[in-house]
Recover the amino acids of this structure.
């Protein structure tokens, strides 16, 4: 019972106020490369060609990868988001290729040497418009996210109709809420160092 | 490439820098002084704040060569455990650092304020720290800590006068 019921100081407090707490970005591993991503300049389109040879030839570039190098090219809670765009672009800024180089300047220069041919397609940006029949499809399977077979999740507590009937006032309105991000200054990050037979 | 000569936390350094190298890159990548953080890297969050010849700057948007012949103070140079600066002591005592990522910039911004204005009001502290974003502790304890540090520094000063 060294701690329970006692007022304790933070175990990392002194390190915080003297600048000694190590964050992932503070760990220096010699030889670490810098990665930069080539992102789609268009909102929606069909990719005809990705040419990375010129970028690979630049001195200081360790490698360039595209969807060809990602065997399972999907991630997300429901893995439906490609790591790299392969045939189509779904949004402006979608990653198409990534460059690893000795430093940031070299990686940026390599990005400029990547050539991508994209045929622009009709896009939709507004979620309400995207739900209309005949709207351009953001994803080939359609624009609605389905829970089982419904584009919504039904949660019912009690007798809703009775609640409305008994209410003194009923206000009907359409409410919108933006998505929220915690936006920490140190973003989620991890560092793995390959060693012989281990990480 | 040019040679940059500068003093950091009382020690002289000479490093090779390019035309676009920032002071933050020199501190972190060349000198391995890591209390100034790469937060937004665009001069908005304040986590890279350092004092350059006593003046508060965001080192991520300060060209390294503009520090030629100058003196830089980072949190490492302010005080160590055992010889804590009153601001460090107060941030520790008031739990004004939770994750600690913004702390270095917060303390240096607060120091820049107290150097100019030893007895700031709460409002003046809020304004002085408005360029430093905190995303977890909240600003309440940070402001309390700066008030406490200012008071301690004033008390130390008057004690010295009496002694």
């Amino acid at each position: 019972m060294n701690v329970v019921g006692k007022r304790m100081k933070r175990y990392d407090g002194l390190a915080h106020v003297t600048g000694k707490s190590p964050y992932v970005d503070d760990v220096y591993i010699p030889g670490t490369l810098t990665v930069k991503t080539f992102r789609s300049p268009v909102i929606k389109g069909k990719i005809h060609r990705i040419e990375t040879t010129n970028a690979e030839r630049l001195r200081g570039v360790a490698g360039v990868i595209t969807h060809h190098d990602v065997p399972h090219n999907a991630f997300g809670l429901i893995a439906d988001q490609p790591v790299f765009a392969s045939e189509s672009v779904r949004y402006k800024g979608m990653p198409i290729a990534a460059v690893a180089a000795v430093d940031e300047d070299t990686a940026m220069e390599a990005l400029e040497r990547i050539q991508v041919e994209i045929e622009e397609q009709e896009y939709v940006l507004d979620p309400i418009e995207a739900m209309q029949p005949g709207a351009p499809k953001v994803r080939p399977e359609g624009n609605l996210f389905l829970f089982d077979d419904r584009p919504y999740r039904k949660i019912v507590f009690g007798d809703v109709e009775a609640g409305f009937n008994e209410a003194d006032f009923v206000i009907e309105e359409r409410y919108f809420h933006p998505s929220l991000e915690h936006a920490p200054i140190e973003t989620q990050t991890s560092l793995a160092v390959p060693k012989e037979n281990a990480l | 490439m040019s040679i940059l000569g500068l003093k950091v936390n009382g020690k002289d350094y000479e490093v090779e820098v390019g035309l676009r190298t920032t002071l933050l890159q020199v501190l972190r990548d060349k000198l391995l002084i890591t209390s100034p953080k790469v937060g937004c890297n665009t001069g908005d969050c304040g986590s890279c704040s350092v004092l350059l010849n006593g003046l508060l700057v965001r080192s991520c948007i300060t060209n390294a060569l503009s520090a030629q012949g100058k003196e830089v103070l980072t949190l490492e140079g302010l005080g160590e455990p055992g010889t804590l600066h009153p601001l460090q002591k107060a941030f520790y005592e008031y739990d004004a650092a939770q994750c600690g990522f913004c702390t270095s910039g917060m303390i240096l911004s607060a120091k820049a304020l107290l150097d100019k204005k030893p007895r700031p009001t709460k409002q003046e502290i809020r304004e002085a720290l408005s360029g430093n974003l905190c995303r977890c502790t909240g600003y309440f304890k940070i402001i309390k800590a700066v008030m406490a540090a200012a008071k301690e520094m004033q008390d130390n000063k008057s004690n010295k006068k009496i002694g």
